[in-house]
Specification:
The structure holds two protein chains of two kinds. By secondary structure, chain A is an all-beta fold. Chain A has strands spanning 4-5, 10-14, 19-25, 32-38, 45-51, 56-59, 62-67, 72-77, 86-93, 102-103, 107-112. Chain A is globular, with a radius of gyration of 13 Å. Chain A starts with a strand and ends with a strand. Chain B is mostly beta strands. Chain B has strands at 4-7, 10-13, 19-25, 32-38, 42-49, 56-57, 65-68, 74-78, 87-96, 101-105, 109-113. In chain B, strands 2, 4, 5, 6, 9, 10 and 11 form a seven-stranded mixed sheet that branches. Classes of the chains: A mainly beta, B mainly beta. Chains A and B meet through strand 4, strand 5 and strand 9 of A and strand 5, strand 9 and strand 10 of B.
């Protein structure tokens, strides 16, 4: 049973516009959330994270929002650039218990020049 | 500082053959992981090692074995490869902060089992 879900397999956005990638989770024990970016033939690279004590974390063009009551997080990229075209994975973990991550199935972002 | 390295990058096996995927990290991380990535499935955890000398099963351990040789190295072995094990395999190691754990990934090993 998928505990972390990314319901949009793909997203296309014009260069300069905002990209919004969404992620939902089911396990209320999750308290740390991450976004990874993956280019073809490379491993995922860490992008940004947020702990459950916050509802927003910003790093340059990337902002992650967390809505704990809805068990939903989103990644905003603004402005979007062609180099942002990649697959984005959402991941979640719980500080207690086994220290591993649960990943969503990914969203392929295409930024159109 | 190479981060997480994996060998080989690509391998073709026949059904029933065995092989070992190698992974090493130079970041002095305690925890290491093996994942497989299949189309439409995201990354699924095969095995992990929370510290040197310990290993635990993840979500999809069947058909695999692991060895945490030392703090740096964590290998994944397929004793008798099956076509269902055709996948891309990623090794990762973990940095722990006060907020949580961030995993850093290797470049992957693409395995094709015929």
């Amino acid at each position: 049973d998928q505990q972390v879900k990314q319901n949009s397999p793909s997203l296309s956005v014009q260069e300069g516009r905002i990209s919004i990638l969404n992620c939902d989770y089911t396990n209320s024990m999750f308290d740390y959330f991450l976004w990874y970016k993956k280019y073809p033939a490379e491993g995922p690279t860490f992008l940004i994270s947020i702990s459950s004590i916050k509802d927003k974390n910003e790093d340059g063009r990337f902002t992650v929002f967390l809505n704990k009551s809805a068990k939903h997080l989103s990644l905003h990229i603004v402005p979007s650039q062609p180099g942002d075209s990649a697959v984005y994975f959402c991941a979640a973990s719980a500080m207690t218990g086994a220290n591993n991550l649960f990943f969503g199935t990914g969203t392929r972002l295409t930024v159109i020049p | 500082n190479a981060g997480v390295t994996q060998t080989p990058k690509f391998q073709v096996l026949k059904t029933g053959q065995s092989m070992t995927l190698q992974c090493a990290q130079d970041m002095n991380h305690n925890s290491m992981y093996w994942y497989r990535q299949d189309p439409g499935m995201g990354l699924r955890l095969i095995y992990y090692s929370a510290s040197e000398g310990t290993t635990d099963k993840g979500e999809v351990p069947n058909g695999y074995n692991v060895s945490r040789l030392n703090k740096r190295e964590f290998s994944l072995r397929l004793e008798s490869a099956a076509p269902s094990q055709t996948s891309v395999y990623f090794c990762a190691s973990t940095f722990t902060s006060g907020s949580g754990e961030t995993q850093y990934f290797g470049p992957g090993t693409r395995l094709l089992v015929l």
